[in-house]
Amino acid sequence: MKTNIIAIIIARMTSSRLPGKQMRLINDRPMMYHIVARLKKVKALDKIVLATTSKDENQELAEYVRKFGVETYFDDNENDVTGRIACAAQHFNATHIVTISGDCPLIHPDFIERGVLQLRQNAADYLYIDKSKYQCLHEGIGFYSTAAWLKLDQLSTTGHHKEHPGSVLFSYEERFQGVEIVPETVFQRHDFRMSVDTMADLDFMDYFYSDLQNGDIVDLYDVINLVDSKPYIKLLNNHVHQRGLTEKSRTVAFITHAGKEIGLGHLSRSIALSLELKESQSLKVVFCINDDLAAKEILKKNGFVFTTWSLETQRDTITRELLQPNSISAIVLDIKSDKGEWLDHWLKLIETIDLPKFAIDYLPDEGESAITSIIPTVCRRGLAANSGNKRTDVIWGRDYLLLNRRINFWRENKDIEKEGIVVTAGGRGQLADPLVKALSQISEAVKIKFVVGPFADRANFKTKLAGYGLKNCEIIFDPPDPYKVYSESQLAIATFGVTTYELIALGVPTVVIDALTPGDRNIVVFMAGKSVCINALAYSSNTEKFVNEIGYLMANQTVRAQLSQAGKSWIDGLGVERVAEIIMSKVSLDNIEDSEVLKKTHNFHAQS
Would you tell me how many other CB atoms lie within 10 Å of the CB of residue 515? Predict the structure, then answer.
């Protein structure tokens, strides 16, 4: 009998955890490119098909894969994935199918080749990997005869079975002939993730492809060797929780703002916390953000859905239509305290909503509000007198600093070559004239990098540096990974803010030259007393003294090493994990119990 074996890629652009992930770039190419390129290496396949839905969002994906000779199949029912695969298999007259998850860019061509041959030779209904015997690195691959899949489709009568293709097999294994496929010994492990569900997973894959790709695909053997030689790589995404088939997610709403006047601090720490909730707790997140173009682009880049507010009527509408118990499970508010109108209005709007509520850097009077206050600071000097130790609604301290978890990867990275000085100019790109003048007098042998945020006037920034004759510098506007830039620097110069904490946690010796409020200045003095940074507030306008201090630090590796070690010990970078656990302790998560599914996970087929 002549066989017609097709690979069916299951993908859609409307993923709740990372929308549009198939077209997000890994080493400058969409993730879907890497999946198709690997399938093209499998000689036993007669055809590759993308099975997606007819939603407009998926047209971009379909048009892209057609460039590489991939067929497409559209279905109107977004939730019936099992039925979509069955219809695609029939439409292309397949005798056997290999189901491919559209979020696994490291599928192994040799494993697929072997699986197809074994499926055909044994006249099997499906292949499985017996996870009671060993773990397996391979993910997102399933092997079936089309006849068996059509039976599975008929048996998939619940929404759960339709949405999770092949899961119904657990309940009817006795009706099918399964054959075990044994992965090679080198792949009998599962100590790192092979699928992309989050931004952390995307960073993980990008690391491999950027480091290893010298042809059209990255060899999985090389990936394993790289992980084994540099185990800290797993810090990029080893915290990501793989949501089980029976888990239901909940949604948390973040209310925050950013802009030229406000800066990026509130948005950046809200993103850090929301990524942690998405990645380690599998929560969905929606942002309510002021109508700022740069802020919205930042949220898009990080894979968030959002709604905008600026006018009072917009805030009222959002509260009425979104911030309700039937839509979300918790509210996190991070509004700058001196934006009294915005903060007071939001507090009034959410006051009566019967949901867990959290406020970042907001301290209500005791008994005033049913809000848990999280104060991410390192000392009490910036706190009001009513923040006593006995208050159960206030959580504060450096253990709750909201820093991006990616920092942990860079602070453990052993392969960094450090060079020169990094100057953080903040989201608005503001630099005091005395600082620029002082930097212009530092030896040209010292490389200076300026990291500038999205709200800066780029032309004026360049003009200002040129006006002082700065030639030994590089300007990096809105870098995709600022922590990499920071980590590669011998010394940092910063105005106090969230970035200061990030630099200290990374172990970058930091000179603080300015602080915008008396409370911030108190914190800088406190941190300098703990020997985790250099307090230059008193002489940042004294060019000669500042140049001498920078020269001393650049020449004294021992002092820099002491600052680095003290900073990393003092701020451990795990604050978002602790705050996420606090939020989760108040958020109710329901699970769908299915005893048959839970009972038989040891014997799941190759698609995981």
Answer: 19
Q: pLDDT over 90 for what percent of the chain?
A: 64
Strands (E), 38-148: 47-53, 71-75, 96-101, 126-128, 141-145
For β-strands 25-26 and 29-30, DSSP reports them as antiparallel
- pTM of this prediction? 0.89
Q: Which CATH class is domain 5-194?
A: alpha beta
Cβ-proximal residues to 165 (8 Å cutoff; 6+ apart), any chain: 10, 81, 82, 85, 99, 142, 607
β-bridge partners, 12: none
Give the mean model confidence (pLDDT) for residues 380-407.
74
215 vs 270: which has the higher pLDDT: 270
Q: Which residue has the tokens 């922590």?
A: 483
**Region(s) of the chain under CATH 3.40.50.11190:** 251-403+577-584
In single-letter form, the type of residue at position 487 comes to: S
Cα separation, 583 vs 288, in Å, equals 18
Report the topology of domain 251-403+577-584.
Rossmann fold (3.40.50)
Instruction: Say if residues 111 and 44 touch (Cβ distance below 8 Å).
Output: no
Tell whether the model's pLDDT for residue 389 goes beyond 70.
no
The 10 Å Cβ neighbour count of residue 122 is 14
Q: Which two tokens stand for residue 157?
A: 């009568």
Tell me the Ramachandran region of residue 166: left when phi exceeds 0, alpha when psi lies from -120 to 50, beta otherwise.
left
Integer angstrom CA distances of residue 331 from 55, 274, 364? 30, 11, 16
CA 148 to chain centre: 38
pLDDT in tens, 487-527: 999 999 999 999 999 999 999 999 999 888 888 999 999 99
- The per-residue pLDDT for 601 is 27
- Token pair of 97, please? 């199918």
**Mean pLDDT across the stretch 152-180?**
90
Nearest CA-CA partner of 565 in 512, 515, 505, 514:
505
Query: What are the beta bridge partners of residue 289?
Result: 256, 308
d(Cα 162, Cα 159) in Å, to the nearest integer? 5
Tokens of residue 260, six digits = 């030229």
Task: Find, among 482, 484, 465, 483, the residue nearest to 474 by Cα.
Answer: 465
Q: Which fold has domain 413-570?
A: Rossmann fold (3.40.50)
CA 527 to chain centre: 29
Task: Let me know: does 39 contact 106? Beta carbons within 8 Å.
Answer: no
Residues of the chain with CATH 3.40.50.2000: 413-570
Residues pairing with 75 in the sheet: 53
Q: How far apart are CA 163 and CA 165, in angstroms?
A: 6
CA nearest to 120, candidates 143, 149, 101:
143
Q: Rounded to whole angstroms, how far apart are CA atoms 499 and 509? A: 13
pLDDT at 374 over 60: yes
Give the residue, 588 or 180, on which the prediction is more confident: 180
- Can you tell me the distance from the alpha carbon of 86 to that of 82, in angstroms, rounded to the nearest whole number? 6
Q: Using the predicted structure, report yes or no on whether residue 595 has a pLDDT greater than 50.
A: no
In the chain, residues under CATH classification 3.90.550.10 are: 5-194
590 vs 331, higher pLDDT = 331
